[in-house]
Structure formats: C-alpha cells, structure tokens
Design goal:
By secondary structure, the protein is an alpha+beta fold. Helices cover about 25% and strands about 25% of the residues. The chain folds into 2 domains: about 80-230, Ubiquitin-like (UB roll) (Roll), CATH 3.10.20; about 245-480 and about 495-585, no CATH class. The longest helix has 28 residues, at about 30-55.
Length: about 600
C-alpha cells in the first residue's frame, strides 16, 4: 500500500511539473506582435534622426541635382573671403553694395558750378563718379579669385554731364534781344520800338573740360566758376525801324448789310495793333473776346451747327479769313484753322477760316510768330472793304512768295428740299424760292515761288462743305386762297442769295459792290474771286483769273502800316521792288 502510494505521489508530482513547465515556458503571440511594432518604431526613429542630422550639417542627399550642388557651393555675396582693397579701402567680407558705400564715404561727392551770387546762381552737379566705382566693383565680384589691390581710374559720366550742361545752359543763357516793335498807339497811329539788349552765353566747352579735369584729379568737392561770353544783338532799334515792313496783306470786299459790316469793323478794331513776340501764339477768339451786344456787336446771319441764325457778331469770319491769307503770305505758321459749313464766296473755297466764340472752345484761327522778331497785326474796315496785314522783318527771302491754290475734288448731291406751306398759293402750286446747291470737297496746296518760278507745290489741307437745300413755297392742300381786290396786283417775287460763308444775304436792291481786283506780282497767281450769285439767287462757280505778267498798284489801300523811323504813321517803304501782294476779292452778300 505504501509502495502504491509512493508511485502515486511521484506520478502526481511529475504531472504537476509538466504542467508548471507549460505555463512558464514559450512566447505568446501578443508578445511577438508587440516586439515587431517596437522594432519598427525604433528603426523609423533612427532613420528620421539621421536625415535631420544630415540636413542640419549640410550633407548632400543622394538625390541632390547638379544645379543644386553648384548653387550650394557658390560663395554668397556677403561671404567674400578674399583679401581685397580698393584705393586703400579694405572690402574683405563685404557685399558689393557695402563695398560701394564704404568707397563713397572716402570719396564724398559735392562738386558745384557757380554762375553768380544769385539764388539760382549755383548748380549742384549730378554724381559723375559712381559708375567708375561700380565698374571696378563689378570686376572684383565677378571673379572667383580677385586681385588683392585695385585702383579706380575716375572719369566723368558722359551722359550725366551732358544733361547737367544742358540744364545749366537753359538756366543761365540769355538770348540777345533785337530792337523790335513793342507797341502801337491808335491815337497817333504809330508803333513804338524797344531798344536792343545784349545776351549772355556760358562757355559750355570750357566748363565741360574743367569738370572732367576735376573728376580725374579726384577733386570731388571742387567749386567751378563758369566762364561766359556776351552775345551782341543783330538789330538795333534804329535798324529795326528800317527793316520792318508789310510782309503779308490781303483785302476782301464786304456786303451792304449794315449790321454785318458793323461786326466786321468791331472785330478788325479788336485785332488791329496786336503785337506778337517771338514764339507767341495768336488766337482770334482770345483777341476779340466774346462777340456780345454789350460790346456793340449786332445780330447778323451766322451758322450754328449748320443752321442759319441771327446772332451777335455774324460776319466776323470774314475778318479771320482775310487775316488767314495775310498770315500765309507772310510765311508764318498756322496751328488751327477750320472751314465753314458751306462754301464761302468772299474767298476761294478751301482758303477760308471760320471762327465761333463758345467759351474759348469754338473753332478758332491760331498762328505762331515763327519769325526771329516781334510782329504786329494791322486790320481795318472802310467802305465795305476789310484789309489785314502782317508787319515784321521779312521772313521769306527776297523774291520768294507763298500762295494757296485750291481746286474742287468732289461734288455731293444737292440736299433734299425744304418746303414752306403758303396758303396764298393755288392748291398744289409750288414756287421755287432758291434752287439750292451741291456740297463739295476742296484740296488746297501751298505753292512757293522764287522770282516767279515754282520751287515747291505741296498739299496743305482738305475742306468739306455742305450743300444748301432748295427752298420751295407750296400749297399742298385743295383749298384755294381767299380772293380780294388786292390780288389784282401781283406779289413781288422773293429772291434769296447765298452770301459769304453760305449765308443768305440782302435782297436784290442791296447788290454787291463792284469787284475791284488788284493784279498779282509777276509770275504769281491771285486768289480766285468769290463766286457771284445769279439774279435767280443761285451761286455761280468761282473762276480763277489768268496769270499776270506784271505787278500793278493795289486799288484798295492796305491797313495802316507801322510808323517810319521818325515816328509818323503810314507804311514803311520796301527796299525792294517785290512788295507784298495786295489782293482784293469780291464778296457776296451774307455771312
């Protein structure tokens, strides 16, 4: 029994030991998974730290491109390690801009030029040396191994120096003033003359050399005095009185319309005696101002946007057109000119100059005194004649003339008729008051002659004109006019005439004055006479006169000319036989 129990206990003990070994030995699945995860985390951490260290210490990645590698090895501008000195200034370790600043501290730029002791008598020159410094620094910083010592060879910046010299010339040069017309007295009908004045000019060539020498010598704070020369005037006051003459004149005839002639007279008086200095621009509208009833202008035929109206100042366009010719004949330069709405008849179409005052914004006649001395304008009206002249020292050479030549290039259809109902006519009866006319286009050339020979014939401008609509009275109803004993006497027939600028003028009892046309100088062609209205009221085509071969005395006196040297009124005598052309063009009634 005892033995049996002993084996039983051993058996029990062995079984227990086997059970204990199974519990304490062997790796479970959860442990394996946890171990793998920990290992992955450790590897990832090591890889990440390695990359961070490489990035921090500048180690190249295996994927770095050649361009990136080259960029990484370039020495930054601020890390120039070479030992470099420029004119004794050590720029080692500096950027190019820092080096420039350091060198400029050594060479402080403060060079000036002195003209006089006035407020504007000193000029501070632009920095003329910084480009010399830049040239050296650009060379240093472009090299991988620059030299250790550099010397700047200074020279003045040519572009900046030229600009400075031009500005100083503009500031300090003073042109000599010739003796010239300076005023006009309407009371004494004489001009006054201003005396001559010398001018001054800086010696630009010497000044340029003085500045360049100062730059080359590194005298960057030098104060350089300007040398000047006196510029003597070419014309004295006494000589001016001898040289001034009528250099361009033109005359047109007006109508018998008293209101229109009043306006022409007032406009001529406003323009008369105007003095224009060299380079000054004349404006007809600014000179006359607004043509108002307060100034004495009377209502007369004028066009507003192509519509005929009665407005104060109607007719003044004849003054501007007459003046326009005188300006062209003088050789002056026009800057603004406009054609009328309808063909004019007091000058050849294409050679007119309409004006209209509208707060200075309307069409204007403007020209510039492009001569070398002051000029004067003379304008006068008398006995249905208006004359404008330019007084000055001749611009054109002796024997030289400039004229306009115009020809029609297109003709447009007559506009649709305008009907006016007249119950005094028989039913469906029509009476033509005016036939109307065609619109047209005109081309104007400037012809320049020398001693009668054409030397140039050039396009000047184109002018477009509207046509007039026929005017017809009619009774478009079936109603007959009332009968009365008064019908036994026939009603007078109305006649409409188109006047200068296309406006209707006075009736047949106020006929135009007779044409008075002066001959042109030898070899020149006078302007075409204005078209004459037929008795039926229609305008005729302008006809150009034939070429003349000899000069004739003008039949109408020009505007009073400048005073003689003695101060008396009247036109100064011309030293040559080629006196300015004085032409008279027959007008037509109307605006």
């Amino acid at each position: 029994m005892a033995t049996s129990n002993s084996r039983g206990r051993r058996s029990t003990g062995a079984s227990g030991r086997r059970r204990r070994r199974r519990r304490g030995s062997g790796i479970t699945a959860p442990k394996i998974v946890a171990f793998v995860l920990i290992l992955i985390v450790i590897v990832a951490a090591v890889f990440g730290v390695t990359r961070l260290l490489k990035s921090a210490f500048g180690e190249k990645s295996p994927t770095t491109t050649a361009a990136q590698a080259k960029e990484t090895t370039t020495v930054p501008e601020s890390e120039l390690t070479a030992q470099v000195s420029v004119d004794g200034v050590n720029i080692t370790g500096m950027s190019e801009s820092e080096a420039r600043t350091a060198i400029m501290r050594k060479y402080d730029w403060n060079m000036t030029v002195r003209f006089d002791d006035s407020e504007k008598g000193t000029f501070a020159l632009s920095n003329l040396i910084d480009r010399s410094i830049d040239s050296v620094l650009d060379d240093i910083y472009a090299k991988k191994k620059p030299d250790t010592d550099y010397t700047i060879i200074f020279s003045a910046d040519e572009d900046r120096l030229a600009s400075d010299l031009s500005e100083m010339e503009h500031m300090w040069n003073k042109a000599a003033k010739n003796g010239a017309i300076s005023g006009y007295s309407k009371e004494s009908n004489s001009f006054t003359y201003s005396g001559e004045e010398p001018g001054v000019a800086i010696d630009s060539e010497k000044l340029k050399k003085d500045i360049e020498d100062a730059v080359a010598s590194k005298k960057f704070s030098a104060k350089i005095d300007v040398s000047t020369t006196v510029v003597e005037p070419e014309i004295s006051a006494a000589k001016a009185k001898e040289l001034y003459k009528t250099i361009g004149t033109f005359t047109t005839n007006t109508t018998a319309n008293p209101a229109r002639n009043n306006n022409i007279k007032l406009a001529a008086q406003a323009v008369d005696g105007t003095i224009l200095e060299v380079g000054e621009t004349f404006s007809f509208n600014l000179c006359t101002g607004n043509r108002t009833t307060e100034k004495g202008y009377q209502p007369a035929g004028a066009y507003q946007n192509g519509v005929l109206v009665e407005e104060p100042g109607g007719g003044v366009c004849q003054v501007s057109s007459t003046l326009y010719h005188a300006v062209i004949y003088s050789g002056l330069t026009t800057v603004e000119r406009h054609a009328h709405t309808f063909e004019p008849s007091y000058v050849t179409p294409g050679e007119d100059a309409t004006v209209s005052y509208d707060g200075y914004a309307g069409p204007d006649l403007k020209f510039v005194n492009s001569s070398s001395s002051a000029i004067a304008i003379r304008a006068s009206y008398s006995n249905q004649t208006v004359t404008c002249s330019i007084i000055g020292i001749p611009i054109l050479e002796e024997g030289e003339t400039i004229r306009m030549s115009s020809h029609k290039t297109a003709e447009y259809d007559v506009p649709a008729p305008v009907y006016e109902e007249d119950p005094m006519l028989q039913p469906h009866e029509e009476v033509v008051v005016s036939e109307g006319d065609h619109g047209s286009a005109w081309t104007t050339n400037l012809i320049r002659k020398k001693n009668g020979e054409v030397v140039s014939d050039e396009f000047f401008h184109t002018s477009i004109y509207k046509g007039h609509s026929p005017k017809i009275r009619r009774n478009s109803t079936d109603i007959a006019p009332p009968t009365s004993e008064a019908e036994s006497s026939e009603s007078p027939q109305e006649t409409v005439e188109y006047g200068p600028g296309g406006g209707p003028g006075v009736s047949g009892t106020n006929a135009s004055p007779a044409s008075t046309t002066a001959a042109s100088p030898a070899g020149t062609t006078a302007a075409s006479p204005a078209s004459q209205a037929t008795e039926a009221g229609g305008p005729a085509e302008p006809v150009s006169p034939p070429e003349t071969t000899a000069a004739a005395e003008p039949t109408a006196a020009p505007a009073p000319a400048p005073a003689s040297p003695a101060g008396q009124g009247g036109a100064p005598s011309s030293p040559t036989a080629e006196a300015p052309v004085h032409e008279t063009v027959e007008p037509h009634p109307g605006f």
